[in-house]
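Observation: inputs received (chain + NAP).
Thought: call the complex predictor directly.
Action: predict_structure
Action Input:
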Amino acid sequence: MANQRVMLITGASTGIGAAVARQACSEGFRLVLLARSQEKLASLQAELSGDVLIVPADVTSREQLTAAVDAAIARFGHIDVVFANAGTGGSPGGFSGADPASWERLLMTNVYGLALTLQCTSDALKSSRGHAVITSSIAGRRSLAGSMYSASKWAATGIGHGFRKEIGKHGVRVTLIEPGMVDTPFFDSPKPDMLKPEDVARAVLYAIAQPAHMEIHEMVVLPMAQQDSDTVP
Ligand SMILES: NC(=O)c1ccc[n+]([C@@H]2O[C@H](COP(=O)([O-])OP(=O)(O)OC[C@H]3O[C@@H](n4cnc5c(N)ncnc54)[C@H](OP(=O)(O)O)[C@@H]3O)[C@@H](O)[C@H]2O)c1
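Observation:
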């Protein structure tokens, strides 16, 4: 029987989110793709052959997330997997010197936006006894000097573990994906020796593919080039 499961992905327009969309589509998932860029979402939708709904949405807007979830339920009836992946990088300068305006954007996206995504999808996940997969980072397990980005990913890791403890009794699984450096548009220059977004996508689909009695809490996924290094994004 065809895979009728529905996956909602935030940060689906590029990088890791787009790679997960491609792989999930090839496995027969029906997709709900969210990002701010309608143009990039439309181009990905045109590339994919499956049943794909695109919804331009900013994860810092409760209204836009709610509208996206409503549109997903109206189209597909249920949501089985939420890949809460939207995120953004920081600015140089450290805690002593960075522009605080950059912290606001970073924390609103990586922390508040993540929590909102989970809140807005939690009823759907309870109904489907579904699976939330959250993109944190190795930077959410190791502290990087002067990095508010790292701090935001520590928060993402904490949100993931806390959400599991809250929602697990409803049969919902929660997995944190914690990659090292991945060669995506997150960076201004190519990172050829680092992970490919497809590497992270395989880890995400592996976690989702496990039977309902088994839950992968965390997956740290590092390129060999970072094997002995604390130099992470
Ligand atoms: N690349 C790495 O080395 C690395 C390592 C560990 C973890 N991560 C994490 O992986 C996730 C994906 O990053 P990536 O590497 O794939 O980078 P990316 O290619 O820049 O993707 C980021 C995605 O998030 C979306 N996004 C950003 N702000 C948003 C907002 N306010 N509302 C909705 N969508 C928003 C972007 O789309 P729009 O701009 O169209 O909205 C884009 O689809 C992030 O959480 C990042 O922190 C990355």
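Thought: report the result.
Final Answer: Helices lie at 15-26, 38-47, 62-76, 94-97, 100-128, 148-167, 197-209. The first strand starts at residue 6 and ends at 10.
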